[in-house]
Amino acid sequence: MGRRSKLRRGGRAITAIPGGFLHLSLLASLRRRPSLQAHAQLLLLGLPLPAPTASRLLRPHLRSGNPSASLRLFLRVLRDRDCDRRPCPVDSQEDVPDSSSFSAALAACSRHASPSPGFSIHAFLLKSRFASNVYAANSLLHFYGSFGLHSLAHKLFDEMPTRDTVSFNTLISSYVQSCCIHDAFEVFRIMVESGLRPDGWTVTALLGACAELQDLRAAKAVHGVARRMLEPQVFHSGEVATSLVDAYVKCRGMELARQVFDLAEDNARNARLWTTMVSGYARAQEFDIAQRLFHEMPEKDTVAWTALIGGFVRAGRYKEAVVLFEEMEEAGFEADEATIVTVLSACVGYGNIDLAKRLHCLVGRDGLINRNAKLATTFVDMYAKHGCIQTAQEVFSGVDDDFKTLELFNAMINGLARCKFGEKAIALFDEMGSLGLHPDKITFVCILSACRYSGLVSQGFRIFDSMEEKYGVKPEIEHYTCMADLLARDGQLDNAYIFIQNMPFKANSVVWSSLVRACMLHGNIKIRKLAEEQLLQLDPNYKPENLPLSNLFSEGKRKERTARVRKFLNHKPVCKHTK
DNA sequence: ATAGGGTTAG
């Protein structure tokens, strides 16, 4: 361990006094001057840091803003303790991070772009004396859930010595988020059986499951459960009312949603409940009612505006969406991340280039786009889809590494694939691991598509073969489709045919028609007949002229429609803040 | 101390 007591900065040596005092005064200055945060934290990284100080330093920072730097610091502290290999004094509160800093750190891990810091903290937690602390364990549960690692979450849950309502709620939400609805209800059953009373969070999670399934009957059943099992004041709260309305809306039960809304008491009728109703009517394409309700809404906010704008976008009424956005700005509401994402798709649909550029400027200011993966992903996706792959890449590489998420990589790889930059896509794919990001099944669809559009046969198979053994992602029919098409486009039509027949899935019409198309291209009549027989079995009305060549056509049409968009987008936004 | 809620969507 290189323990330095002197740090150099700008030619001036700062003498550090080992011990807590310096840290505490730094901490104080850090609170007062946010601009110093990054520097002060770097300074601290070079110092031996007493753990209690670290805890005090970290707790407020891990909760808000950019937790990445704080997380690095926390891990550093943990490693320092670990390297010392001192026997951990069981009763001593000294020199060891306390349990609440583990919770705070894990909460930060859940919001981090990559799961790796969370894995490390789990390891340290196991060695600490808080391994069975229910707060720490619940935070860990939430961490696994937030990265969709529900099997790890469940394993952890099974091993927890104590479980409380929060543990159950967290596991249920984890399953709902991974669309394992059946498991979510199963956990709920066990929860009730073990005598724990569900609370508002439980009901909300279950209603989320009903909404996901679009199962109106299930939503009604959960409504009944809530009425019977919740404390009356919880049942009548705005939170529960909002989840009920949200579930009914998503299950297309507007009348029921309206009933809940009408019956809600005044204190439960908050902005969220209003917004849910507005967005519900907008989803149901009842724009008159949605707008009337929106105007009746006592305290509109950015989210409510965004909900209505989003309704118009979803209905393809882009012009109205853009007009509404302008009204919103005039009324003095500031666009947030969701607004930008929503309005951007309206711009693309409506061909409003000036607004798209203005939005890019808006998020380029203060480098917002460089620290917000969702924004960056939307812009990367938009630029790539319009063939502005260079601008897409600029947006991508502008994002700080700590903020690069799996979705962002997927969007960039997908963009490179579509523009036939296969090699670049593979390079990017290889880069993910170093940021602690694990490719998922979507990543593989993108990267294998990159190979097929660029004719990279051997690389494609190398990656395909590594999917399960190296990355633990089981190939699905989409991946097999890519591989069959990769072979077919390469002219290996016999191999493609054999490959399709040996797939562990029943080939669908997508697979066969891509083979027919490749046969037409390479003039292979024998395989084409075989493929067409299969297509006829799948669809007795199959005719070669109905073959979904539409891909090609629509691509051509899309290109034409977006040519104008691209022309403008290729010029960087005229904005000094961007970049 | 630990968890979500309404807006984003190819």
TrEMBL record:
InterPro entries recorded: PPR_At4g14850-like_plant, PPR_rpt, TPR-like_helical_dom_sf
GO BP annotations, alphabetical order: RNA modification
UniProt GO MF annotations: RNA binding
Keywords: Repeat, Transit peptide
PPR repeats: 164-198, 270-300, 301-335, 405-439
Descriptive protein name: Pentacotripeptide-repeat region of PRORP domain-containing protein
Source organism: Oryza glaberrima (African rice)
Upper taxonomic lineage: Eukaryota, Viridiplantae, Streptophyta, Embryophyta, Tracheophyta
